[in-house]
Amino acid sequence: MKNHSIKKYPNYQHGAAGINFTSYFSPHSGNQTPEKVLEYIKPNLSNNIKTIINFGCASGRDFIPFQTNYNCIGFDIAPVEDITWVCETDNLTYYECSIEDFLSNIDTFKFDFPNSLVYTQGTLMYASHEDQNIFVETLIKKGCNSIILQEYEPGNSGHHPYLNLNEKNLKFFTKRIFRDSYEGNPTAHLYLQKL
User: Fold this and answer.
1) Region for residue 87 given its phi and psi (left: phi exceeds 0; alpha: psi -120 to 50; beta: otherwise)
2) Please, is 64 exposed, middle or buried when counting C-beta atoms within 10 Å of its C-beta (0-12, 13-18, 19+)?
3) What is the β-pairing status of strands 116-121 and 51-55?
4) What's the CA gap between 68 and 65, in Å, rounded?
5) I want to staple 170 with a disulfide (CB 3.0 to 4.6 A). Which of 55, 68, 158, 165 is the partner?
6) Number of domains forming the structure of the chain
7) Is the pLDDT of residue 171 over 60?
8) DSSP helix, strand, coil percent of the chain (3-state; round to 5)
9) Which of 59, 65, 126, 64 lies closest to 94 in space, CA to CA?
10) Mean pLDDT of the 66-83 span
11) Where residue 73 sits, what CATH number does that domain have?
């Protein structure tokens, strides 16, 4: 595994909302199963997708469906030494990096965005509304045609209290709920070239 730190986050365990995130980077956090949206997405991915880029990768559970056939790139704010990976790491590159720092350093990332699936898991909602929209606009500008924004919201309907894509960006996405037995159901906003 290769790992890089764009910026150190010594207080990551406190989280933006006072949540202790330490457990998310441990296999004992109670959930090592990949998100259900990935069961739907994997067989429907375009054949040109070679790389999975996961923002909010935690201990890597969402890499499990992809770890043998794809190049995996993870972003999160925990130091790599604090993560106990639940996925294979032979083909994993990990960046200790927030979405804000990713955007500030975008030209340093030489990713093949047109041949990548970019996936956020409960992460984008911690960025400002402005950065959320810049993130989407940047990915599309870089030629990324496969994006999943899966963020948590209360219940199965209504406006997301933290994710606020403007109408210009929202028109690219369809909205789907893949789990309904969890408090604060995750809603996936899908922008996929093949589907």
Assistant:
1) beta
2) middle
3) parallel
4) 8
5) 165
6) 1
7) yes
8) 30, 25, 50
9) 59
10) 90
11) 3.40.50.150
